[in-house]
UniProtKB/TrEMBL annotation:
SMART domains: GGDEF
Gene3D superfamilies: 3.30.70.270
UniProt name for this protein: Diguanylate cyclase (GGDEF)-like protein
GGDEF domain span: 254-390
Keyword Transmembrane attributed: yes
Hydrolase recorded as keyword: no
Keyword annotations from UniProtKB, A to Z: Membrane, Transmembrane, Transmembrane helix
PANTHER family: DIGUANYLATE CYCLASE DGCM-RELATED (PTHR45138:SF9), REGULATORY COMPONENTS OF SENSORY TRANSDUCTION SYSTEM (PTHR45138)
NCBIfam families: GGDEF
Domain of life of the native organism: Bacteria
Transmembrane portions of the chain: 6-28, 40-61, 67-87, 99-119, 125-143, 155-177, 189-211
Record SUPFAM superfamilies: Nucleotide cyclase
Organism: Paenibacillus hunanensis
Length: 397
């Protein structure tokens, strides 16, 4: 049984695979805001299609076109495709961009040099395989080691790692067997190479689309869950996450605390300095309090905006005494801040309620009790912390 595959048929399938991808991306780009990642991926597919088309006519056109130019385009295409992958994940820094640019130039110049020296095809295969694998090293490292990586991203990292390994194995085989592993030498190695090339194209095209979809879904979820101006949870998401947390705490018969606070004399700030300054006050406040809450609770808190200048914090496994101490630390964080970017100092008042977690606790009840405590803090002169009595609070639930 023969496993030999027709060279031109495989190359044509690669050309059309990349062209169809280019057509689909072009149709998509007409209705979206220009994106660096999509543009780089589009260009990589176009360049790769031209490269494989040049290889189809090898023997018909001069070798400078079918070998040197074709491999040059493949290097550029690989660099752009992996760059697009990194741009999509927002890790393509200026330093990495510079390294990729230098690496691409070195790959192209090196290949042209060894071709000009008249070295064997086996040596060119070794060089091209190692050079192409080089572009995959950082994407593989990042996608497989990123702690926040999704299952899809980690799987793609592993698959790209297999691709890089196969390229290095091909280089090793070329060292041992020379021209026998060339794409234009019929045999088992040629067939395996063609199958690998086709699978790599499918991995690159499908993987990029799926990662793009995953990124878009994550962004939509972020927009739907967070307050755009301050970066904390919006009211709906805060209430959902708080309910879920309370249910978990109820199973452990643990305590939960709810802190409600707002900016003292916020309307006066808006009326005197304008809404732009008022917005900056809220942004400055939430930035400071998020950092302080992380220090005080070890990231164990839920922080959300209820509306206007009113914010809430849910503290799991925190009793009344500890909640009062945390609230006081938050008050001091704002009161003692020395912001040079704001034209006005500001303070906050906080109302605290702590109860035994129960499954039937209503978020509106916790809000009303803490709001009553907040009212007492305002009445006491503002820039205060007031605590609603726990026994009375649990009786009201």
């Amino acid at each position: 049984m023969s496993f030999n595959l027709d060279m031109k048929t495989i190359f044509i399938s690669l050309v059309f695979g990349h062209i169809f991808t280019v057509i689909l991306i072009n149709a998509y780009r007409k209705h979206t805001v220009p994106d660096r990642s999509v543009n780089a991926f589009f260009l990589s597919k176009l360049i790769q299609a031209i490269a494989w088309a040049l290889l189809i006519v090898r023997g018909v056109v001069p070798e400078l076109l079918s070998i040197v130019l074709a491999n040059t385009l493949l290097f550029v295409g690989a660099a752009l495709e992996t760059s697009a992958l990194l741009m999509l994940q927002q890790v393509f820094s200026k330093r990495l961009k510079r390294l990729y640019l230098i690496g691409t130039v070195i790959c192209i110049a090196g290949f042209a040099l060894i071709y000009g020296l008249g070295v064997s095809e086996g040596a060119r295969i070794v060089y091209a395989s190692v050079a192409t694998a080089m572009f995959l090293f950082y994407p593989v490292y990042y996608m497989t080691t990123d702690r926040a990586a999704s299952t899809l991203k980690r799987l793609m990292g592993i698959l790209y790692g297999i691709v890089a390994l196969s390229l290095l194995l091909r280089a090793g085989a070329a060292i041992q067997l020379g021209d026998q592993v060339g794409l234009f030498t019929q045999g088992m190695y040629q067939s395996f190479s063609f199958i690998a090339l086709y699978l790599i194209m499918i991995l690159g095209n499908t993987g990029y689309v799926l990662l793009s979809k995953e990124q878009a879904d994550a962004e939509l979820l972020r927009i739907a869950s967070y307050d755009e101006m301050t970066g904390v949870l919006n009211r709906r998401t805060f209430m959902v996450e708080s309910r879920n947390m309370i249910h978990q705490l109820a199973m452990r018969q643990s305590q939960v605390s709810f802190i409600l606070f707002d900016v003292d004399s916020y309307k006066t700030i808006n009326d005197t300095y304008g809404h732009f300054t008022g917005d900056r006050v809220l942004q400055d406040m939430t930035d400071r309090l998020k950092e302080r809450l992380s220090e005080l609770t070890g990231e164990r808190y839920i922080f959300g905006r209820y509306g206007g200048d009113e914010f809430a914090v849910l503290l799991p496994d925190v009793d009344e005494a500890k909640a009062g101490g945390i609230a006081e630390q938050l008050r001091l964080t704002v009161a003692n801040s020395d912001s040079h970017v704001l034209p006005v100092p500001y303070t906050i008042s906080l109302g605290v309620v702590s109860v035994q977690a129960q499954r039937n606790i209503q978020m509106n009840t916790l809000y009303e009790l803490s709001d009553h405590a907040l009212y007492n803090a305002k009445r006491a002169g503002k820039n205060q912390v007031a605590i609603y009595n726990q026994e009375q609070a649990e009786a009201a639930l």
